[in-house]
Design goal:
Two copies of one chain form a homodimer. Chain A is 35% helix and 19% strand. Chain A is of the alpha/beta class. In chain A, helix 1 packs antiparallel against helix 4 and helix 1 crosses helix 12. Chains A and B meet through helix 7, helix 11, strand 15 and helix 14 of A and helix 7, helix 10, helix 11, strand 13 and helix 14 of B.
């Protein structure tokens, strides 16, 4: 039995609703393949492992019930880090600590679930292993609500964030249309450089509501004057205008719009305003009507209670596929969705060399944004629609959803 | 048939997730009793009716399917207003317009669904009717996420808002605990003078998460120094501190803590924003660790996708009871929940004189806040728990919930 060896899994970067579904998928793939003796989990990613923090996951997740519950639990069960591994020529001691751990614990595969920056860790670990002729497979599993990873049709976690954004946008429309006075509502959505999530607000449109009337992404230069004209034009058609805006909208010179405005609070502190608040203050001056802004904030990446079933199911599938890739001997690869067909919607999982993915961003193609730069095209909607289908069957106890116990993450005393 | 007469329904004040459930309940009560010929709906409340805006609801809501869909649609199907009726001695012409409409349309009952300020409309209309010996019943139906209406155990709409707050707080805990660095997260919850909704954040607590660690309501004087001490004390136990705070927290002299409180609405309320942001900035200076604030904003009053089934069912029930009250000849009354038993939880509907309710606020009793003023007591939790039970079975189409068509609310051309 010892010849099977062990494996370890880590999670890294910002939270999503589906990153634990991928963890559950990796665990399910391991159980089904029976290819490893023990499965460890880094606590707080590669940074936590460097400090000796890990868990034995084989013992905790044996039953279907526990794996199902894990799959719908938001954020990272294993905790996260935002840690860029230094190059091994700069800090060889870090690599020695990590690979000593791998060797002494008979780790044959490292699964690392994360986004752009986390894939950089996969590159560096696999490069070190290759350079030192070490027999260990390093496999990346994607995640990010930003949907900005190359080579994969979309990313695990994006569909659920998109479903939250679309649903919330529709509910904000219902909230907005009730008063018989002109108003502008600006909804700020996450996305510094990639506008995929803001684009998904268009999925809120129904036969009776066109909200959001205007959509601005970081990929198209933002002009304050054009924005005011856009709003005034919509105001001729309807009383209440609803705008979706990426946090990362920039002017034609690439400067963030949010950086142009600061407010001063009661203590005299300058507050850096978000893009939504900045536009709110600007419009109030220009229009003289009621203007408000809503920042969806961390809710858009953690609202498991309205996860996309498609997203959760696929995230489990891609986790299982990561195990298959490792067992086929692949390394320095990331598992990716490949859309085989849109109607009916069907995706397969393939794997790609990590060098084509790490530290790269897939932004929205300009042709999926309308010419005026204030809406998305029908092609974008065709791409987005299948990703938010279905709803997770959520168990509730005492009125709130039932998620996994994460006591190990918030205790002051670190476990080994 | 004509002897049965007609009735009219209006909605007023701020949105909730259950105010259309009460509308659906009134409509169901009317259909079941067969006591009226036609049912009209004021569009944009009493203010809209003054401008001649109304709909015929009998034609639109005949089927069980349409009434069920209405019951889970957020915000006001009929639109809303924030309009304080002037006293009839000041503006008799307003009352003449309204009662001419009622008389010429054979309106026998006015159902008005709203909160504190809307109940003022019920008081004034019924006083006018009484003074002029007019045979028309005016019945108030409560609603508000603030839960601050006297005489009723709780208000329709509160349970759903509480469920959203508790669920979101739990999801924010999962989002917060992932990093291995100290942080403070401040969640700002609606409530100017009454802390009921902020208190409901305590329902997020599970066996593995104590979030929110600290809860501050407007009913207990807020002290910035004590707040910093409270946070420092929790930081000794865990890395990540999560705080729930009402938008309306005040210092011992009754001044709002929030950064900006200059704007004044139609009722003379100060428009608040930024208690959370204010505390965030204050703490950043004092602690030097990561501090962030999250404002739940309009989502807490419009997130029908996670409505409390208990709240929706009861809101339909109280709407039906309003019809029963009218048919019993009652007027100048509001229907109220009376909690018969907590275990098992069971409420009945009774009606109370509107004078005891309008323009009055039911705040959290001091004994349901702990002595230090930074948490709620077990009695509060016992009161709150039953209100968030269950989940609405939500239909989805194209990935988003299926709500009622509200085209009539946002078109530029007002319907008659």
């Amino acid at each position: 039995m010892l010849s099977k060896g062990n494996c370890i899994i880590g999670q890294s970067g910002g939270p999503t609703v589906a990153i634990n579904a991928s963890l559950s998928g990796v665990l399910q793939g391991i159980i089904e393949s029976d290819a490893y003796n023990s499965v460890y989990g880094m606590v707080h990613g590669i940074e936590g492992l460097l400090q000796g923090s890990y868990l034995n996951l084989s013992e905790q997740f044996k039953t279907k019930e526990s794996l199902d519950k894990l799959a719908i639990t938001p954020s990272m069960y294993l905790g996260s880090c935002r840690f860029k591994l230094p190059h091994y020529e700069v800090a060889p001691e870090i690599y020695e600590i990590l690979f000593n751990f791998f060797t002494s614990n008979d780790i044959r595969t490292v699964f690392y679930i994360g986004g752009n920056d986390s894939m950089d860790t996969v590159v560096k670990l696999s490069s070190y292993a290759k350079a030192n002729n070490l027999s260990i497979n390093i496999i990346g599993v994607p995640k990010t609500i930003d949907n900005d990873l190359p080579m994969t049709d979309h990313t695990p976690g994006f569909g659920s964030a998109a479903k939250f954004v679309a649903t919330t946008m529709l509910e904000i429309a219902h909230d907005t249309y009730i008063y018989n006075i002109p108003s502008v509502t600006i909804v700020e959505i996450m996305g510094r450089n990639a506008g995929w999530l803001t684009a998904s607000s268009a999925l809120a449109r129904t036969s009776y509501s066109n909200a959001p009337d205007l959509i601005y992404l970081p990929e198209a230069p933002f002009c304050l004057d054009s924005f005011v004209e856009d709003v005034k034009r919509i105001q001729k058609q309807r009383k209440n205008v609803i705008v979706a805006v990426s946090e990362g909208i920039k002017d034609k010179d690439g400067n963030y719009i949010s950086a142009t405005s600061t407010a001063v609070d009661a203590f005299g502190h300058k507050q850096l305003c978000g893009a939504g608040k900045t536009l709110e203050n600007y419009l109030k001056d220009k229009l003289g009507c009621k203007v408000r802004s809503v920042e969806l904030n961390v809710l858009q990446r953690s609202a498991s209670h309205i996860a996309s079933k498609t997203d959760i199911d696929e995230s489990i599938m891609i986790g299982k596929a990561a195990v298959k890739s490792a067992l086929e001997g692949k390394t320095a690869q990331m598992v990716c969705y490949h859309r085989m067909s849109n109607d009916p919607y069907y995706v397969d999982v393939v794997s790609h060399a990590i060098e084509d993915i790490a530290n790269k961003e897939k932004v929205v193609p300009r042709m999926w944004i309308n010419e005026a730069g204030n809406d998305v095209t029908e092609d974008m909607l065709t791409y987005l629609r299948p990703l938010i289908e279905g709803e997770t069957v959520m168990g509730y106890a005492n009125g709130v959803p039932v998620y996994c116990d994460i006591t190990h993450l918030h205790t002051k005393t670190e476990q080994k």
